[in-house]
Design a protein that fits this description.
Order of helices and strands: HHHHHHH
Structural class: mainly alpha
Largest sheet: none
Number of strands: 0
Length: about 160
């Protein structure tokens, strides 16, 4: 992480090895799965725990580098639609929790089945966070506080304001 922070080209050059990283991570995960099945019948001894944890650490590193490389390749060009969601993400993070809690409290003693409650809370929260972002946050001084000013030409969706 430190090396990547100092030189972003390190991350870009690693994108060439994306499939190697992901393949190694997958093979390590399969090996770990079979090791856990094999060792499940007996009690872990210290060396087994050490090997198990080291393999998991190596697998996590390869999976992390592989997924970083995957998304670097996938998003080399800016996509306006994805940029909109990226810009909205911090606002969504800040505001979604009170909305979810409020909706859950309102359904606390409801006759509505749990699965329907889940979907209702999910859909209503998603609609509310994006509507509030679009109408009250985007292109205002608040967005400058959250992550810097945004130019109006980047707006990908044409909503009709009522």
């Amino acid at each position: 992480g430190y090396i990547m922070l100092r030189d972003i080209n390190t991350l870009n050059s690693g994108a060439r090895y994306m499939w190697a990283y992901l393949t190694i991570a997958f093979l390590l995960q399969v090996a770990l799965h079979f090791l856990e099945i094999y060792w499940a019948s007996e009690e872990f001894i210290l060396i087994q725990k050490l090997i198990h944890n080291m393999l998991y650490a190596v697998q996590t590193v390869f999976l992390t580098f592989g997924m970083l490389a995957f998304f670097i390749k996938l998003f080399q060009k800016e996509h306006k639609f994805i940029r909109y969601f990226s810009d909205a993400s911090y606002w969504i993070y800040l505001i979604h929790f009170p909305i979810v809690i409020g909706l859950q409290i309102s359904f606390m003693n409801s006759w509505v089945p749990g699965v329907l409650r889940l979907w209702f809370v999910l859909i209503v929260t998603t609609i509310l966070v994006f509507v509030t972002y679009h109408l009250f946050i985007r292109f205002t001084f608040i967005v400058s506080i959250l992550h810097g000013p945004r130019e109006k030409k980047r707006f990908p969706i044409n909503f009709v304001r009522v």
